[in-house]
Amino acid sequence: MTRMSSTVAAAFLVVAVAWPLLASAQPAPSMPPPSPPAAATNNSRLEKAYVALQALKRAITDDPKKLTKNWCGPDVCNYFGVYCAPAPDDSCQRTVAGVDLNHGDLAGTLPEELGLLSDLAVFHLNSNRFSGSLPESLRSLHLLHEIDVSNNQLSGPFPSQLLCLPNVQYVDIRFNNFCGEVPAAIFEKKIDALFINNNHFEFTLPESFTNSTASVIVLANLPRLGGCLPSSIGDMAGTLNELILLNSGISSCIPPEIGKLDKLTVLDLSFNSIAGTLPDTIGNMRALEQLDVAHNQLAGEIPESICELPHLKNFTYSHNFFCGEPHRCLEVPHIDDSQNCIAGRPDQRPGEECISFLHRPKVHCDAQGCIAPPSPPPPPPPVYAHPPPVY
Fold it and tell me: Which among 217, 228, 281, 272 is positioned nearest to 248, based on CA atoms?
C-alpha cells in the first residue's frame, strides 16, 4: 500500500546548468561583455541524499523493472520514487522527504548510507527482495514517520533502530525473516500501526502490550509468541481499532474486560489455545464488524448480546466446543458455526468428541488471564499397617 503524502508527491527542484557562449564574436564596443551564468548546485541536504541514493543503487543487484534507471546525476528530486519537499526547518531549502519503491521486485541490500537521508519522512520498500538486516544508521532518521519494508527477505533480530525514532507512527516489517525477542518497548512507543506478523519472532506477550496507543496491531502467524490476554486489555479502549492475533500461540482465557474496547472493529483470535467461554461483555463492543475465534478450545453458549451487535458482519466460531447458539446468531450476514457441538446444526463434531470434551476438567482463569492449572486431586485416605485399636 502506497501512503505517500501529497506534499512529497512531486519534484520541484530545478537544477540550473551553465550555458556555453553561442557566438565567438566579440560584443559591440558599446555593450558590456555578458557574464556566464553560474551553475546551480545542490544544497548540503541534497548532496547527502545523492550519496545515500547512489549507495542504494549500487547495493541493488537486480532491478528488473528498471526503477532506478534514471538515478543518474545530482538532481535527486527527479529520481523515480524519490520525493522532495521544503525542509521542515528551512522552507527555502529542498530536501528528500520520501522514498517509495514498493512492488519493485528489487534485489539487494540496504546500505548504511541511508542514514544520510536525515529529513526522510516516508520510507516504503515493500514487496521487493531485499535481504540482510536494516542498517543501524536508520536510528538517525529522526523525522521518519512511516517505514514499510514488508514482504522482503530481511533477517536478523528485531530492528531496535525503530525504538530510537521519535516520530515514527507506522511500522510495517511483516513477511520477512526477523527472529528472536520483540522488545517490550515497542508497545510503549506512541505509534499508530504495528505490523510484525509472519516473521520468526519468539517471545511472550509482555505486560506493556496493553500500554500501546496503536489503532492497528497485527501479531499474526507468530506461533512462538505465546502468553495470555491480560485483564488490562481494556486500557487500550481509547485508540485500538483492529487487533489480529491469529495463530500466535496464545494460551489464554478471554478476559471480560475485553468488552471495554468499544472502538474495536476487527478482533481475530483464531488458531490459538484459547479456552473457557466467550464473555457476554463482547456485546458492549458496539463498533465490532469482524469477530473470529475459530480453532480454539472455547465452550459453553454463544452470548446473544454478541449476535445483536449493530455492525457485526462476520462472526466465525467454528472448530470449538460450543454447545448452543441463539437463533439471533443465524441472522448475522456471515457466520461459521461448523465443527462445534451444537444440536440440530449441520457439520458438527462427532458426538463422542463432544462427550469426551465435557469430561475434561473445567477451565479456570487466573488474575492475569492465563489458564490456571487444574487443582490437584484430594490426597488419598491414610493406609494403616494394622487396623486401628477398638476401644
Answer: 272
Q: What percent of the chain has pLDDT over 90?
A: 79
Tell me if 71 sits within 8 A of 79, measured CB to CB.
Answer: yes
Opening angle at CA 292, ends 289 and 296, nearest 5: 160
Helices (H), 113-216: none
Backbone φ and ψ for 328, nearest 5 degrees, come out as -60, -30
Alpha-carbon dihedral 220, 224, 225, 229, rounded to 10 degrees: 90
Q: What is the pLDDT of residue 383?
A: 66
230 pLDDT higher than 50:
yes
List beta partners, residue 243: 217, 267
Measure Cα distances from 63 to 106, 122, 380 in Å.
5, 21, 74
Lookup: cell for 74? 545530482
Residue 51 makes CB contacts below 8 A (sequence gap 6+) with 113, 116
Return d(Cα 232, Cα 363) in angstroms, integer: 20
pLDDT tens track for 45-89: 999 999 999 999 999 999 999 999 999 999 999 999 999 999 999
Task: Write out pLDDT tens, residues 90-118.
Answer: 999 999 999 999 999 999 999 999 999 99
What's the mean pLDDT in 276-304? 97
Q: Which residues pair with 348 in a beta bridge?
A: none
Cα three-residue angle 344-346-350, rounded to 5 degrees: 85
Residues 259 and 391: their CA atoms lie apart, in Å, by: 63
* Nearest-angstrom CA–CA distance, 162 and 136: 10
- Helix, coil or strand: residue 221: coil
What residue type is assigned to position 273 of the chain? Answer: S
Which of 191, 196, 237 lies closest to 214 in space, CA to CA? 191
Per-residue DSSP letters for 344-374?
A: T-SSPPPHHHHHHHHTSPPPEE-TTSPEEPP
